[in-house]
Amino acid sequence: MNSLMDPVLALHPWLARLLTGMAMTLQLTATAVLIAAALALPLAILRARGTPWLQTPLRLYVSFFRGTPLLVQLFLVYYGSGQFRPELQQLGLWWFFRDPFYCAVTAFTLNSVAYQMEILRGGLLAVSRGEVEAGLAFGMNRRLLYRRIILPNAYRIAWPALGNEIILLLKASAIASVVTLLDLMGQTRRLFASSFDISVYLWAAVAYLLITYTFITLWRRMEHRLSRHRQRS
Amino acid sequence: MELLSYLSWGPHGWGDELVRGLGVTLSLALTTLPLGLLLGLLIALASVSGRPVLQRLAQLYTATLRGIPELLTLFVVYNGAAMLLNQLARHVNPDAGFVELSPFVAGVVALGLVFSAFAAEVLRGAWLALDKGQREAARALGFTPWLGFWLVEFPPLLRLALPGLGNLWLNLLKDTALVSVIALNDLMRMASVAVGVTKQPFLFYLAVSLLYWLLCVLSEAAIGRLEQHLSRGLRRPAL
C-alpha cells in the first residue's frame, strides 16, 4: 500500500494511465487555445480601434471572464446548460452540452479569448507608429499593412505574454477532472483513490512540469525566430 | 420573479446561505494573503541573498509551485498532510482514530504556498528594479542595514511590487473556488448545494459568478487607490 520508499517502482503500473491523461490534457488545452487564438485576433483589433459602441461590450466580456473563477465558468456551461435541456434538445444541440469534453473546451475557449484579446490588444497598440507610416508611404493597403507590418510586430511583442497565458490555461485545465474528464489530473485522482499512494501525485507533478518546460523551450525558440531580424551579432 | 425567490433570504431562499459562503471565501482569501506574502518575502530574500545554495532552493521552490496546477497542490496538501498527520498520530497513540485535516486549513496552506511562489517572483523583480543609489545613500548616512531596508528600500519596493501583487490577490480570490472541490463550504460549494436542491444550475452559478465578479471589480478599485497612495511624492517622467 505504501510505496513512498519506492516511488520509481510504483510508477510502472500507472504509466499507461498517466500518459493517457497527459494526452487528454494536451488535447483539451490545445483545442481551446487554438480556437481562442482564431477568435481573439479579430476581437482584439475591434477592441483596439473599434467605435466605443463596440468596445464597451468587449471590455465587459474581458472583465467578466478574467474576474470570475474558471471553475464557475465551467460549471455554468456544463451544469448550467442542463437548465435549458428541453430547449437545447429542440435545437438539436444537447449532444454538445451533454459531453464534458465539449463543455470544458467551450469554457476554456471563452476564458482564453478574454485573456488573449487583452494581450493582443496590447501588442497591436505597441506596434511602432513609424513602421506603419512607412508602410503607408509605400502605398500598402490595409490588408497588406496588417499582413506584413502590424501583425508580425504585434505577435512578436505579445509572444511572451501569450506563452504565459497558454501555461496558465494548461494548469487550469486540471479542473476538467471535476466534471469527470480523465485528463492528467483526473487519472491521477483515480489512481490515488484506488491506491492511497501519495507518490502518484508526485508523478503527476513531474508530468505537468515536463509539459510546461517542453512548452517553454519550444515557445522561446519560436520567439527567437519571430525576432530574428532584431538580433545583433 | 419566481426565479428570484430562490435567491431570497430565509428558510425558502438561498440568499443567506450564499452570503455565508461568501464569508468563508473571503476569510479564506484574507487568511491566506498575509501568510503567503510573508513566506513570499522570505523566499524573495533568499533568492537575492547572493548565497548560491539559498538561491538554488528558492529557484526550485518557485519553479515547482508555479509549474504545477493549483488543484494538484491542493490535493497533495489535503491528502498528503492528512496521511502524515495520521502516521504521526499512530506513532504517538496506536489506537488513535482517523485524523482529518480541515478543508479550510488545507486550503490556506495550499493557496498560501502557491501565492508565496508567485509573490516571491514579483518581489524579486521589484527588488532588482530598486534604485541602488538610494541604498548606498542610506548606507552612507549611517543607517543600519535593517533600518535602511525598512525606511529607504521597503516603501519603493512596495510601490514597484503592487501591480504584480494586486494581480496575485485577484488570482487568489478566484482560486479559493477550487477549495470547494475538497468540500469547504465556500461560495462555490454553497451554490452547488443549492443547485442540488433546486435544480436551477444556471441561475445559481450565474449569481455566484456575479458575486465573484463584484469582489474582483471592488478589489481592482481598491488596488488602484492604494497604488495612487503609494506613488504620492513620486515624480513621473514627462511623456
TrEMBL record, chain B:
Q: Where is the ABC transmembrane type-1 domain?
A: 22-223
Cell compartments where the protein resides: Cell inner membrane; Cell membrane
Q: Indicate the transmembrane segments per the record.
A: 20-46, 67-89, 101-120, 140-162, 202-226
Q: Which Pfam families match?
A: BPD_transp_1
Keywords in alphabetical order: Amino-acid transport, Cell inner membrane, Cell membrane, Membrane, Transmembrane, Transmembrane helix, Transport
As for family, the record states: Belongs to the binding-protein-dependent transport system permease family. HisMQ subfamily.
Main subcellular location of this protein, as a coarse class: membrane
Q: How does it sit in the membrane?
A: Multi-pass membrane protein
Q: Which NCBIfam families match?
A: HEQRo_perm_3TM (TIGR01726)
Q: Which InterPro entries match?
A: AA_ABC_transptr_permease_3TM, ABC_transp_permease_HisMQ, MetI-like, MetI-like_sf
UniProt KW Transferase keyword? no
Q: Which domain of life is it from?
A: Bacteria
Q: Which Gene3D superfamilies match?
A: MetI-like
User: What is the recorded name of this protein?
Assistant: ABC transporter permease
